[in-house]
Structure formats: structure tokens, C-alpha cells
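Deliverable D5.2: sample structural annotation.
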Amino acid sequence: MQKHSEITTLYVGNLPQHSSEEEVRSIFAGFGEVHSVKLVRDRITGRPRGFGFIEMTSRAAETARRKLNHYRFGGRILRVDAALDRSPS
């Protein structure tokens, strides 16, 4: 019997301003299936804010977090960690 894998959301920060969702997806896909990529943009200007969220299976997410935290991408050092749950505002 195959156990259903849980999905984990990772926070990725210090992204270069020119990063695309496709580029970020390709980096994380090296560690497992990426379910979604969401790069956050400023609501007013539409400019990238330099961080985003990646959804992956829990096992792949943990491996990606360990391997990609402090990874150099586009001249910047990424910060990768488990995303915190947001409380409703």
C-alpha cells in the first residue's frame, strides 16, 4: 500500500528581482515534484518583492530546504525554510 504524501510549503527569500516562477521551479524540481510556485509581488507597483512560496511533497521539501538554504542563485544567497502558517487577519 502506498502512503499518500503530504504537501509542505517552503518559504524562499532573497530572490533576485528578475527571478521567474519557471526558474525557481526548475531549481526546486531537482529535489522532487513541485506542486506550485508563487512569487510575491507588491500589490501597488507589481514589482517582485524578492520572496515566494513553493509547495512540494514533505520529503522532497525537506531535502530541498537542506540543500538550497544558502544556495547562490542570480548572485544572491537564498534563504529557504518551512513557511509559517498565516493566521487569518
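Annotation notes: The helical segments are 21-29, 58-68. The chain has one domain: 7-82.
The annotation will be released with the project's public dataset once the embargo ends.
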